[in-house]
Amino acid sequence: MRGRFFSGLAAGALLGAAAGMMMMPQMDYRTRRRVKRAGKRLGHMTQDLMDNMREYRR
Questions:
Q1: Which domain of life is it from (predicted)?
Q2: Where are the domains of the chain?
């Protein structure tokens, strides 16, 4: 149950970031690239957290 919650939370955060990027078309290339990289880092950090939580439960 908890795994689904955190997965949903991470997916919502990524979708929110993507929607925010769509609403800001005046951003230059460099800013979009930085936001994209930050999103990828957040996704990797979330995946690591989920993996650590799964190992802790074992």
A1: Bacteria
A2: 2-57
What spatial distance separates the first Cα and last Cα of the chain, rounded to whole Å? 15
Query: Which residue's entry shows tokens 């979330």?
Result: 46
57 three-class SS: helix
* pTM metric for this prediction: 0.52
- 10-34 tens-digit pLDDT: 888 888 877 777 777 667 788 878 8
- For residue 23, the Cα-to-chain-centroid distance in whole angstroms is 18
CB atoms within 10 A of CB 50: 15
User: Position of tokens 């970031």?
Assistant: 17
Token reading at 27: 């951003």
